[in-house]
Fold this sequence. Notes:
Oligomer: single chain
Number of strands: 23
Number of helices: 18
Shape: globular
Strand order of the largest sheet: 10-11-12-3-13-21-14
Helix content: 25-40%
Amino acid sequence: MTNISRRGLLASGAAAGVLAATGMPVRAQQKGGTLRLGLAGANTSDSWDSRTHSDSYMIMAAHGAVFDTLTEVAANGELVGELADSWEATPDAKTWTFKLKTGVTFHNGKAFGADDVIESLNMHVAEGAKSAAKPIVSAITEMKKLGEHEVQMTLKAGNADFPFLLSDYHICIYPAGQIEEAVAKGIGTGMYKVEAFDPGVRTLLSRVDSHYKDGKAGWFDSVELIAINDASARMNALMTGQVDAVNRVDFKTESLLKANPMVSISEVTGNQHYTFPMLTGLSPFDNVKVRQALKHSINRQEMVNKVLQGHGAVANDIPIGPANQYFASDLPQNEYDPDMAKHLIKEAGLDGLQVDLSASNAAFGGAVDAALLYQASAKGAGIDINVVQEPEDGYWSNVWLKKAWCACYWSGRATEDWMFSTAYESGVPWNDTGWENARFQELLLTARAELDSAKRKDQYHEMQMIMSKEGGTVIPMYANYVDAHSNKLTNSGTVGNVFQMDSSRLIERWWFA
């Protein structure tokens, strides 16, 4: 068996055959030491319920250390197995059979098997469950236990991306019959087990003995995750040696980091994008002309220059990024055009426009500055944007999905369907605009089951064109993942770009030199 990349899977039609899943590459790693991470993205409402995870701190702790998923996107972009050994599909990509790893145990000693997979996936479609992975799991019409270590899943319709979707950080595997306890205590099959957990403050983990990944991952003896949401405090903690690595480099102090001989900056280009989603069911955002006017009243290049300090690129109101296979780079750009914005406001039947924009740096580093830049550029179009600065703690539970217009960020996804179905499919929990377009939804379902790469390209191109012109999200810029770390830390030389900090897997993949 051989590993496959997302491009190979979609372009070759290999989804109909056996898809291999080997482990991580073995290099000259060294065990030992305590890794200390200073992380943004922590909240006092954090828990070990992966269905609720939406920010970097818990993604790192849970998906990157304590729990495992069935599959994993390796640092080089290949899809490999985590708790799954291998998988194969029927020619229509509708029925998938997963062979699971043997000899795996949970942190409480329970043996891992097929029941754990089935019960863990069912968590996302349970009555009352509010899971961002519900769209993925609800597409499964039947799960069969073919043996203690073999599960068959039948989908409503073919999906060439399905193995990639099971690497979603929400779909962590819990022990069957003990899920409530596992959520309360953080009991997974991951390389690290929970020693202490103070939500929004600190997490302490220790390496599991005799783990199934021994020799392939997990080089630190223990890991301490420290919540440092304030950007200046986080950078200072790294420069003074209080922590070994930080996420979300503060570009205002980047020069100080570069001047420190003990610190290195890690930067990769992925599909991360910063957004301003509008709830399109609410006035005035229910008017497409208003949405278009707001897209023409933002100076995107200024935002890239001043907020990202050049660490990114201008975006075009689509969530598909330059690392995606079917990225439509040739779409007409929504340019900053105050006169066009004024004209569109008149076409909407309005004399002017006054709107509130909620923002907090919890949304993304520099979100408040970005909102103020937006406010300034929109004035030229006769649009009055009132920037409402929201508290950082509780932003994702109190503002996002609740306020009519706000700041947000998305890390992007490894495939187009994964991104669209997570945030733009009708009725999904994380559809943060509620935007409805019949043709877009039709194409979403058609492209999902299409194994012909050329046809898929045309379908995704049309979806991006519709969204750029009519969608409810202003997406001004793609942001590189920029993290920083002590020179004592090292890695294989390849850093993943699915999420920040080596696709949230730094804890498993890096080590002290």
